[in-house]
Amino acid sequence: MGDTQDSLDHEFANYTTCHGASRIANAKNRPHMALWTLVFLAAFGICTWQVVDRIQNYFAYRTGTEINVQLESELTFPAVTICNFNRIRDSATTQNDLAYLGAAFYIPALLDDPETLNEFLQEVDWDGFNASTALLEDFAGYVRQNGFVLDNDSLAECTWRGRKCYADNFTHVFTEYGNCWTFNGDKDSPLKQTSPGAGNGLKLIMDILTDEYTEDPITGNLEYGLVFQVHDQHEPPRPELVGTAVAPGSHTYASTFQTHVINQPTPWGQCDSKKRSLTYYDKYTLPGCLLECRAAIVASVCKCRPMYYPGVLDYCTPLNLTACVLPTLAAFLRESNEFDTCGCTVPCEYTAYSSQVSYAGYPSEKAARFYETVFNYSSGYMSKNVVLLDVYYHELRSTTLEQFKAVDVSGLISDVGGQFGFFIGVSVITFWEFLEYLVMKFSAFFLFSRKPSNSNKKVSNKDVLKVDNAMVFENAAAEVAEKTESTELSTIQTKSNGEKAAVLEMT
Ligand SMILES: *[C@@H]1O[C@H](CO)[C@@H](O)[C@H](O)[C@H]1NC(C)=O
Ligand SMILES: *[C@@H]1O[C@H](CO)[C@@H](O)[C@H](O)[C@H]1NC(C)=O
Ligand SMILES: *[C@@H]1O[C@H](CO)[C@@H](O)[C@H](O)[C@H]1NC(C)=O
Ligand SMILES: *[C@@H]1O[C@H](CO)[C@@H](O)[C@H](O)[C@H]1NC(C)=O
Ligand SMILES: *[C@@H]1O[C@H](CO)[C@@H](O)[C@H](O)[C@H]1NC(C)=O
User: What sections of the protein cross the membrane (predicted)?
Assistant: First the structure.
């Protein structure tokens, strides 16, 4: 029995493509064998160390980022959302309403302390303000009607690529600044800029109507001017977070950059490869997800929705905002991480816009005199009220930031395969050989351990094996010989004979 096992071992050692084994098996003498064993073991050790290292390297999920800059002949123009620091126009409201709103939003100082807030809400005689029913019953409608308005009068001039545009080219959207207006918000056919530089994008001259400002010095905005945001058409604007403020009396140049971002899904990057969808937006975006999440939190507690959140519930009244929405949100943002609680991840692919803003004084004295006659403005009115905003690409170029896996599966395979091949000459086929050898060894073990005394059969078995091998070689040689020239034939035959001899010698 031991004889058969030994012969199997020997045979395996000889034919396996892991040639270290055959070197050991065929060593000329013991020192030679010891040397080969040493070399083989050392190579095997280094190989194991390297393979483990390569596998760890893969499971570190490292990433790299590829930056690609592409010049384009035309570039999709972003949506531009414009808001005013003033939320309600003076001429459209009454002192009663303003007093009511001033009191209703007198809360930043009270937010941290629900008891003081409740006391305050109960102490004030809300009916005593005699506020209009429009304000009390439909705050959103009230803001929409009496808030910042972008019409043909306040939009003194607007051009897109040199062609005139009008108030009708802007669509209304609510944000925390009240009424805002979006240019080029159409998702399906966004405008494209075809030549670079200021004046080839959106250029507008706006009268911000500082006389109409009603912002409360304690509860409202203290600034005057516009806030604008450039954003993807699919993305809801959040100018209170990412807007850029523009002051009147200046020409603002907003040179815009377009960046495509492609992220890897977890565990490599942070994006979620499952295609998430939002309820109120047609495409998943991070701002959309966060807005829906906040809306859901507010809705669950207050049973209403602020006008600047998406949803189907009725709009909140000013007192709902004060008594419930703002404290709820403040507590939520204080106590939990918005990203984790909402489960909002960055999309795997999105377009980001950013702009670099620079200013020049505007208008010059001569221009002021000229415009004052054109627009019939009083002297000095322009520097206090008029904003000139230019949004454009200064270069028609898009940048793609693509995150990629530093080691992907095929990288791992070639890493590991390279170590196995280089150090011990092992391939996938070798593993299969080894498996086959193990199966043969086990089957031989069980076959012969049952009939340990039958040595004759064992020998004949071995002979059969030997003959089988010889036949295989002969057949292979014959097959090859058919396809080769006669000179090669002789070498192959010699080789096959030699190998046959080796097999015979081995057994
Ligand atoms: C409330 O306003 C209405 C009209 O705006 C007026 O008729 C009424 O007298 C006012 N009430 C009080 C208490 O000021
Ligand atoms: C603005 O002016 C344009 C051109 O005169 C006109 O077509 C458009 O209806 C006007 N829009 C408003 C809101 O007045
Ligand atoms: C503005 O709106 C008018 C009418 O809807 C349209 O014909 C025009 O192309 C628009 N201009 C821009 C720049 O979108
Ligand atoms: C919202 O406001 C209305 C009217 O002011 C009030 O009846 C309701 O209780 C308020 N809801 C909450 C949750 O504060
Ligand atoms: C210019 O404005 C003044 C008052 O601000 C007004 O009296 C005058 O009629 C206006 N002129 C034109 C041409 O609109």
Answer: 33-52
Find the 376 Cα to ligand 5 centroid distance in Å: 6
Pair 423, 19: CB distance under 8 Å: no
Q: Tell me the CATH number at 11.
A: 1.10.287.770
Say what percent of the chain tops pLDDT 90: 51
Identify the pLDDT of residue 110. Answer: 62
Ligand 3 pocket, 160 CB below 6 A?
yes
> No. of H helices and E strands in the chain?
18, 15
Residue where a domain stops, chosen among 404, 432, 466: 404
Please tell me the distance between residue 320's alpha carbon and the centre of ligand 4 in angstroms. 5
pLDDT digits (tens, 9 = 90+) for 456-470: 444 444 444 444 444
- Indicate the burial class of 9 (C-beta count within 10 angstroms; 0-12, 13-18, 19 or more): middle
Q: What is the dihedral of CA 414, 416, 418, 419, to 10 degrees?
A: 170
Measured CA to CA, the distance from residue 104 to residue 325 in angstroms comes to: 12
Is 245 a domain residue? yes
| Residue matched to tokens 């911000």 | 208
Q: Quick check: CB of 322 below 6 Å from ligand 4?
A: no
Expressed as residue numbers, the domain containing 155 is 74-94+149-258+351-404
Verify that 33 and 175 share a domain, yes or no.
no
